[in-house]
């Protein structure tokens, strides 16, 4: 795609944001560009043509991909379509972070010569390969086109298939040990310590009344 400033509304229009499901959004990806009136596919749009219809890597030559309003539906739509990697000169910060959170890889290629070489492969309909452990982009012959940068922690999460919950569950034993310790030392915080003593019913505090049964009110102070 040879456009700059492709915003999140272009990626997934606002009328498709009512759902909280991550599946089914692929059909609405780039909706205004992919379809003509009455939902007929636009034959001129790149993702409607072979071999790009089955693309797993989206190559964008314009800067600032994913700008606009923050919506996690944007990476959801790309992922549901089948795109797992987006290559562009630069990304909007929120979109960039959201892609990692959803197990996708955004690759920023700022060197014009490297980006041109990648785009040339894409235009010719040739496959490119992303070697994440080696942090290299290769052509279909396995030849290196260029290297790319990715934060080591995020790389680890992608290689191991870990999301935020998966990362937390790696500490399951330590979390359980900490919770047990806190229950023993400060049982009043979660109430678990008191459960061992058995239930105890406590009556409500009686509200003071007058001899006529009326609720006693404190005199006003000025």
What would you say this structure looks like, in words?
The protein is α/β, with parallel strands linked by helices. The chain has a single domain (8-169), classed as Aconitase, domain 4 (Alpha-Beta Barrel). It has 10 helices and 6 strands. The chain has helices at residues 8-11, 31-34, 73-81, 93-101, 112-123, 152-160, 164-169, 172-185, 187-190, 192-195; strands at 57-59, 85-88, 105-108, 128-131, 136-139, 144-147. The strands form 2 sheets. Strands 1-2-3 form a 3-stranded parallel sheet. Strands 4-5-6 form a 3-stranded antiparallel sheet, with helices on one face.
What is the number of strand segments? 6
Order of helices and strands: HHEHEHEHEEEHHHHH
Number of domains: 1
Using the coordinates above, name the CATH class: Alpha Beta
Give the end-to-end Cα distance, rounded to a whole number of Å.
Answer: 75 Å
Going by CATH, what is the homologous superfamily? Aconitase, domain 4
Return the CATH topology: Aconitase, domain 4
Tertiary shape: extended
Q: Which percent bin holds the helix content?
A: 25-40%
| Structural class assignment | alpha/beta
Tally of helical segments: 10
What Rg, in angstroms, do the CA atoms define? 28 Å
- Which regions have little confidence, pLDDT < 50, spanning 5+ residues? none
- Report the major sheet: 3 strands, parallel
Question: What order do the helices and strands come in, and which of them pair?
Answer:
Layout: H1 8-11, H2 31-34, E1 57-59, H3 73-81, E2 85-88, H4 93-101, E3 105-108, H5 112-123, E4 128-131, E5 136-139, E6 144-147, H6 152-160, H7 164-169, H8 172-185, H9 187-190, H10 192-195
Parallel strand pairs: 1-2, 2-3
Antiparallel strand pairs: 4-5, 5-6
């Amino acid at each position: 795609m040879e456009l700059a400033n492709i915003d999140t509304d272009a990626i997934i229009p606002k009328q498709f944001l009512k759902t909280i499901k991550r599946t089914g959004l692929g059909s609405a990806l780039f909706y205004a560009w992919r379809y003509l009136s009455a939902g007929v596919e636009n034959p001129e749009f790149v993702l409607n043509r072979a071999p790009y219809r089955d693309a797993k890597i989206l190559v964008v030559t314009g800067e600032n991909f994913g700008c606009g309003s923050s919506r996690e539906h944007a990476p959801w739509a790309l992922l549901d379509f089948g795109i797992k990697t987006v290559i562009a000169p630069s990304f909007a910060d929120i979109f960039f972070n959201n892609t990692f959170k959803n197990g996708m890889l955004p690759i920023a290629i700022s060197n014009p010569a490297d980006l041109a070489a990648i785009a040339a492969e894409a235009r010719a309909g040739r496959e490119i390969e992303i070697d994440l452990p080696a942090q290299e982009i290769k052509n279909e012959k396995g030849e290196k086109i260029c290297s790319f940068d990715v934060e080591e922690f995020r790389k680890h999460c992608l290689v191991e298939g870990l999301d935020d919950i998966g990362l937390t569950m790696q500490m399951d034993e330590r979390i359980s040990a900490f919770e047990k310790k806190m229950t023993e030392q400060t049982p009043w915080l979660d109430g678990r310590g008191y459960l061992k003593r058995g239930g105890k019913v406590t009556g409500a505090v009686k509200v003071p009344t007058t001899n006529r049964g009326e609720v006693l009110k404190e005199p006003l102070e000025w």
